[in-house]
Amino acid sequence: MNLLGTWLTDRMDLQLHLYQLKILIRVVKKKYRDFRLQGVLDSTLNSKMYETVRNRLTLEEATASVREGGMQGISMRDSDEDDDN
């Protein structure tokens, strides 16, 4: 997550391509779910870097939805709803 956060920070002034955004959302959601299933504590999972990455991807997703007209079923919001179940 730190590597991803650093990569996104280095590209703060650049928008992500739609393909990059979709892949990063899938990677972050899968990483979060897998570690949660393995019993990693929420306090560890919800680190400052995770929140930074999540916020950036959510912002990029909103921008892409307006610009491209939709994300075809891929969303950061899905991970929030799935985790509550």
TrEMBL record:
One of the protein's GO biological processes: positive regulation of exocytosis
Positions of the MUN domain: 1-35
Protein name (record): Calcium-dependent secretion activator 1
Taxonomy, superkingdom: Eukaryota
Gene Ontology CC terms: glutamatergic synapse; presynapse
InterPro entries, per the entry: CAPS (IPR033227), MUN_dom (IPR010439)
Species the sequence originates in: Liparis tanakae (Tanaka's snailfish)
Signal peptide coordinates: none
Pfam family, one: MUN
